[in-house]
Design a protein that fits this description.
alpha+beta, Ubiquitin-like (UB roll), 3-stranded antiparallel beta sheet
Length: 77
């Protein structure tokens, strides 16, 4: 498979995390199987992974293993 952004090669890789934002409530998924471009780093999720994430989000992300605090920094002047 080739990258839609740069035409590079896509390899299978487990990413450290992917963040989703639903109704201003960020959810962090870790250890996600994804494709990653060897040239530009663009990440691609397959349909099965997207369905799994959507199902978890529909359930209110109740299966979380832990919560973290994240600093929020505004760049607005």
């Amino acid at each position: 498979m080739t990258c839609f952004e740069c035409g590079g090669e896509i390899i299978r890789k487990t990413t450290s995390f992917i963040m989703y934002d639903t109704d201003h409530k960020p959810v962090l998924f870790e250890d996600v199987e994804a494709g990653e471009c060897t040239q530009c780093g663009e990440k691609y999720l397959d349909g099965h992974t997207v369905e799994k994430i959507e199902k978890i989000l529909e359930g209110g992300a109740s299966g979380s293993t832990r919560e973290i605090k994240v600093p929020v920094i505004s760049l607005a002047a």
